[in-house]
TrEMBL record, chain A:
Signal peptide: none annotated. The lineage of its organism: Bacteria, Pseudomonadati, Bacteroidota, Flavobacteriia, Flavobacteriales. Residues 3-420 form the Ketosynthase family 3 (KS3) domain. This is 3-oxoacyl-[acyl-carrier-protein] synthase 1. The keyword Acyltransferase applies.
TrEMBL record, chain B:
It comes from Psychroflexus gondwanensis ACAM 44. It comes from the Bacteria. This is Carrier domain-containing protein. Residues 4-81 form the Carrier domain. InterPro entries: ACP-like_sf (IPR036736), PP-bd_ACP (IPR009081).
Length: 428, 84
């Protein structure tokens, strides 16, 4: 069977610095931080009392959720994913009808869904009030609650599922959807991921002492990927969504195309060599990047920009070193590199999809968003990459190919290659 | 409390769960929650919880199973109110 080319025709995003594709575009261009101090984290005696929480207006809730759906709705990830998913669907020019669409499916990932709803349920159960949980406890707390919700809203009749691979989730979802379309099993897939906000998601990371505790009084400065003073990742939340479809389907619908997905690679380091539950095996990371290039049919010279995972920890230099060795590029020959985590923090399971949306916007509009909080680049990174390749201000730049990677707990990796779409061009 | 008064309160309770506006506007004691008002069966447990809160009563499983129409629900509520 002929392999289908896969393009992106719809975007949706709920990020800590902006909600909706248009405000998000402005926010990442201007370098708007989404990180704020949260007094409840202080009251709960968190070391890190800052984080990224999207602002959702009642008007937005009423646009995407019925009054009944809003009753007792505590699963913030479901709210973020529900908004982003429906935005991407509408952005692609797709309608919601009474008919089921057998050619459209959903792969929408998450880490843990509805922790605030779970907390409410645990309290009720412990108070011997299980009978008073209500009807939505299951929908809000099953991992696949997000894909189930969107599947019903949009009437999708192809595969509807949820993937989960920690901070790799969103990028993995895109590649899983890509596989399904390129192999002809679906025409359109809504892919993305979401992550709940708040202390019950972030507590475990605070306990691991991997979040910054020095910036509670100046939250916007805390997320500093590639900086010499990077002190840990800033916890965040949100959702990103992409409507991807076969080129054939997009052309048939005359849908505007943001970019093309050329391919990618998903692998794991097996928690061997320097890999562990929390640290990546560098050999596997390099192999993931190299195989993504082969899969996409591009050379390392073709990569204009890397949208990196870079979380603002001591591992940043290792990640840059891995990119350098995988691409065989360094100094002035290294591609441009940026990390959206300097704007929005680390949105955990939502990180990959929110960051992919930023990459797709960069490709389609020709810009590179600035790396924030990186006045002093880490000396170990400067040994690998020329500082001109780490833009600290907005760059207008015509881009052709972006490599996006995400790495997650469990030593799992995903790398995808995106290309600016050009009409009639059949080669990379 | 009269059956009419209970039914008026019940109408307010079920409103958010109703999926057939016309049958809701013409609600009678004979209205069936699922067939006439097209309430999602999963939401029937929410109706019961809202009834418990509104009337300050507790409804056990055997009574709950009866509460599939306006009339049957009004009867269960009246019985519970009398035994309070």
């Amino acid at each position: 069977m002929k392999t289908q080319r896969v393009v992106i025709t719809g975007l949706g995003v709920v990020a800590s610095n902006a909600v909706g594709v248009s405000p998000f575009t402005d926010a990442i261009k201007s370098g708007k931080s989404g990180i704020q101090f949260h007094s409840n984290l202080k009251e709960l005696k968190f070391s890190c009392q800052i984080g990224g929480i999207p602002e959702i207006s009642q008007e937005l809730m009423d646009t995407y959720f019925t009054a009944l759906e809003q009753r007792g709705l505590l699963a913030t990830g479901l709210i973020y994913g529900g908004i982003a998913g429906q935005e991407a669907w509408a952005d692609a020019g797709l309608d919601i009808t009474e008919e089921v669409d057998p050619d459209s499916g959903i792969i929408f990932g998450t880490g843990v869904l509805g922790v605030d709803k779970l907390r409410e349920a645990f309290h009720r159960i412990d108070q011997k009030q299980v009978r008073r949980l209500g009807s939505t406890s299951v929908l809000q707390t099953m991992a696949s609650g997000i894909s189930a919700f969107l599947g019903g809203k949009l009437g999708c009749g192809n595969q509807v599922t949820t993937n989960s691979s920690a901070c790799t989730t969103g990028t993995e979802a895109l590649l899983m959807g890509y596989d399904r379309i390129s192999s002809g099993k679906a025409k359109r897939m809504l892919v993305g991921s979401c992550s709940d906000s708040g202390p019950y998601v972030w507590g475990g990371f605070d306990a691991l002492r991997i979040l910054p505790h020095q910036y509670n009084d100046r939250p916007e400065e805390a997320s500093k990927p590639m900086s010499e003073s990077a002190a840990g990742f800033v916890p965040s939340s949100g959702a990103g969504a992409m409507l991807i479809e076969s080129l054939e389907s997009a052309l048939e619908r005359e849908a505007p195309i943001y970019a093309e997905v050329l391919g990618g690679c998903i692998n794991s380091g097996g928690q061997r060599e320097q890999g562990s539950m929390t640290a990546p095996n560098s050999s596997a990371v390099k192999s993931c990047i190299s195989k993504a290039l082969v899969e996409a049919g591009v050379n390392s010279e073709d990569i204009d920009l890397i949208n990196a995972h870079l979380t603002a920890t001591a591992m940043d230099a290792t990640e840059v070193q891995n990119w350098s060795e995988a691409l065989q590029k360094s100094g002035k020959n290294f591609p441009y590199i940026n990390s959206l985590k300097s704007h929005v923090g680390h949105a955990l399971a939502a990180a990959g999809s929110v960051e992919l949306v930023s990459s797709i916007l960069e490709l389609s509009q020709g810009f590179i968003f600035p790396n924030l909080n990186c006045d002093t680049i880490h000396p170990n990174i400067l040994k690998i990459v020329d500082k001109e390749k780490i833009p600290r201000t907005l760059l207008k730049k015509n881009l052709n190919i972006i490599a996006k990677a995400s790495f997650g707990f469990g030593d799992v990796n995903a790398c995808v290659i995106l290309k600016k779409y050009s009409n009639g061009d059949n080669s990379a | 409390m009269t059956a009419e008064a209970i039914q008026d309160k019940l109408k307010v309770i079920v409103q958010p769960y109703v999926n057939h506006q016309e049958n809701f506007d013409n609600l009678t004691s004979k209205s069936d929650f699922i067939n006439d008002l097209q309430i999602n069966s999963a939401n029937l447990v929410d109706v019961v919880l809202d009834v418990e809160d509104e009337f300050d009563i507790r409804i056990e499983n055997d009574d709950m199973e009866k509460m599939i129409s306006v009339e049957a629900t009004v009867n269960v509520i009246q019985k519970k109110l009398k035994s309070k």
